[in-house]
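INFO batch 0412 | record 1 of 1 | parsing
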Amino acid sequence: MRSFLRWEIIQKTMFDSFSPYLKFELNYLKQSRDWLETWHKAIEENISGYPIPFYLHKRSSGNLIHHAYHIAQFKQITDINIDKLQLILEFGGGYGSMCRLFNKLNFKGSYIIYDLEYFSLLQEYYLKSIIINNDHTIWGINNYYCISNFIKLKNKLDTLRPNQNQNTLFIATWSLSESPIEIRKLFESILQQFKFILIAYQSNYNGIDNNEYFNTIVKNMDNYEWINYKIEHIPNSYYLFGKLD
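INFO prediction complete | emitting tokens
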């Protein structure tokens, strides 16, 4: 387990090490005005999981650079203030890397990852491996929760009581667009509890027209300001960013 990030199944499904587009994303971060103050420090890897260093920036990994690029794009479009966020819900969290990255960006609220049970176990393992103590506090994050049951998720949200007046963020990078329609339907009402929405998706998946699906989301949530644009360096992929208007 100490080197799980080098397992073949992990490399093929959730840890991107060598894709050509990673060079473009790293260059984007380096050319941003926030490089020295923010991204240079935020994308520094730790030893947990034994990640493969990215060949053009060996203090980081391709996967961490990829996640940082999503957030950098979102910040540029929405002008979101990460250290003012109170709650983040991530739908499909891989092994927990995005949660760790937000912490390094000075997020200090509550972070929920909703995923399949086996992934929740992996996320717990990874996040605990970089934890300072055992009270579910990761550095500056007050609370993190790895949840695989929808009823438990609803109960946790009821406890935290997110609403559109709070600084809250929903994240789903390709995960929601790879889910069955019945799972998506469960989350459509949850989306409306969040002030900010960061989604990345592919145009088609398993016979589902995702362009049509997310266009319907945009129409139904017309109290949000939406930005939907193609990710030019990743084939058939798009960003959908929402902010309560």
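INFO post-check: The first strand starts at residue 87 and ends at 91.
INFO record closed
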